[in-house]
Design a protein that fits this description.
The protein is 0% helix and 52% strand. It is built from no helices and 28 strands. Strands 1-28-27-26 form a four-stranded antiparallel beta sheet, with no helix packed on it. Strands 2-3-4-5 form a four-stranded antiparallel beta sheet, with no helix packed on it. The protein is globular and about 50 Å long.
Length: 326
């Protein structure tokens, strides 16, 4: 919880295990604190964060663990449900994980006696990403190395099934475009599917591979970003199916791309974990160079705060937080 200048992080939180994935709740949970979930080798921890950037009475950062959920296997991805509410009586925590056994697990808890989880079977290979329907939270979409994108209801029934031409790396659902799903494939193609007709309606091309991660900009639904090879790429979907802007960023290879949730020109990328460190870069489209560069010991995961220009990366027994300028 201290300010940590040695690795130029703004804050760190100590964890009991290596953190494979970390995710801020992107939805309003009705509380002044932000929910964060992180996954280790066999559990998921849900906690709350509050930062001095949003509350003058906080010194640096406050972090509190709400509950640890036994998972029994390594956690590879986490998605929050918009049905998560801390202001309800009793509160409701709901999230879904993807694990190395190719299953999804839906967790629901009231942080007291009710702790349920359901397992969804169907994918035949590694699951790379998952997301809840952003408005009602009644469906979950997932993408996998098995060359499919699947949409599930909360009982684990498959509602839609899209066959891809290569591994599915990212899947996004935009609150303003609730009937469309964005799916990014490793071969460099990003497709939008109409969930009513279950047809592809638009595609974008990287013209380079491998595409490892893509994101749909919350603040401007016409903007898509991705990393492929060692470059970041950005599209304006009204203009062209080819990137409007691209730049090399990570010497080895870029791993993750995430738009800030507060500014349509702000985004972050991470490189592959090297022998000891992972590089995090924060970019602003108005600046030719990254506006922040950070390193985390063998970091993984990348997530932005819902209302602050602040991002987090998981690492070895730690979560690292960086605050950036708007």
């Amino acid at each position: 919880m201290k300010q940590d200048s040695t690795r130029n992080t703004s804050y760190t939180v100590d964890c009991e295990d290596y953190v494979h994935v970390v995710k801020f709740n992107p939805f309003d949970s009705g509380d002044s604190c932000s929910l964060i979930a992180y996954g280790g080798s066999n559990y998921v921890v849900v906690g709350t964060c509050r930062f001095q950037e949003e509350d003058a009475e906080v010194e640096g950062m406050q972090y509190k663990t709400l509950r640890t959920f036994h998972h029994g296997i390594r956690v590879d991805a986490i998605a929050w449900s918009p049905e998560t509410r801390l202001d309800a009586i009793p509160p409701q925590i709901r999230f879904c994980t993807a694990a190395s056994d190719r299953k999804l697990r839906l967790f629901t808890s009231d942080l007291q006696d009710k702790n349920e989880f359901k397992t969804f079977d169907g994918h035949s290979d590694y699951i790379n990403d998952l997301v809840f329907a952003p408005n009602e939270g009644q469906e979950i979409a997932s993408v996998s190395d098995d060359h499919t994108c699947r949409v599930w209801d909360l009982e684990g029934n498959e509602k839609a099934h899209f066959v891809l031409r290569s591994p599915g790396m990212s899947v996004c659902w935009h609150p303003e475009e609730a009937f469309k799903l964005m799916v990014a494939e490793k071969n460099g193609t990003i497709r939008f599917y109409d969930l009513i007709t279950q047809q592809a309606i638009l595609s974008l091309e990287c013209e380079q591979t491998p595409l490892m991660s893509a994101d749909w900009c919350l603040k401007n639904p016409l903007k898509i970003g991705a990393v492929a090879g060692s470059d970041w790429l950005i599209w304006d979907i009204t203009r062209s199916s080819y990137p409007q802007d691209k730049r090399p960023v990570h010497v080895d290879r870029a791993r993750l791309f995430r738009w800030s949730r507060v500014n349509e020109n702000l985004f972050a990328t991470t490189g592959y974990p090297g022998k000891t460190t992972t590089q995090l870069l924060v970019h602003h489209l108005g600046h030719p160079q990254p506006i922040l560069s950070g390193t985390a010991a063998v970091g993984s995961g990348l997530t932005w705060h819902r209302t602050l220009p602040l991002c987090a990366v998981g690492g070895d027994h730690k979560i690292f937080f960086w605050v950036t300028e708007m």
